[in-house]
Amino acid sequence: MGSATSIVVLLLVFSVPGSNGVATTQKIDFKSRQDCESFRDQVVHAWDGSFDKQRNSTKPTAWGLCVEKPL
């Protein structure tokens, strides 16, 4: 669990369909593992690689990993 001597970092990777393996990454800091995992689950669910009818294209796929980092 996160404590005063550490933070929890969420590393997100977004893979765009048809990009030949190119991915975009993002790092976000959280105070607790629970907050990190909750946010990660929401992002991964929203960016699931499914077809977006409104945009007529396939969404990127996201993966996320929460890790504790000492301050």
Number of strands: 5
> What is the count of DSSP helices, taking H or I runs of 4+ residues?
1
Content-based structural category: alpha+beta
Q: Would you list the SSEs in sequence order as H and E?
A: EEHEEE
The percent range for helix content is 10-25%
Q: Estimate what percentage of residues fall within beta strands.
A: over 45%
Mean pLDDT: 89
Describe the strand arrangement of the main beta sheet, using strand numbers: 2-1-5
Described by the principal axes of the CA atoms, the overall outline is elongated
Describe the biggest sheet?
3 strands, antiparallel
Cα-atom Rg, whole angstroms? 14 Å
* End-to-end CA span: 14 Å
Uncertain runs with pLDDT below 50, 5 residues or more?
none
Descriptive notes:
With 71 residues, this protein is of the alpha+beta class. 20% of the residues lie in helices and 45% in strands. It has one helix spanning 33-46, and strands spanning 6-15, 23-30, 51-52, 57-58, 61-70. The strands form two sheets. Strands 2-1-5 form a three-stranded antiparallel beta sheet, covered by helices on one side. Strands 3-4 form a two-stranded antiparallel sheet. The longest helix is centred in the middle third of the chain and has 14 residues, at 33-46. The chain starts with 5 loop residues before the first strand and ends with a strand. The model has no long low-confidence stretch (mean pLDDT 89).
Characteristic terms for this protein:
alpha+beta; three-stranded antiparallel β-sheet; two-stranded antiparallel ribbon; 1 helix
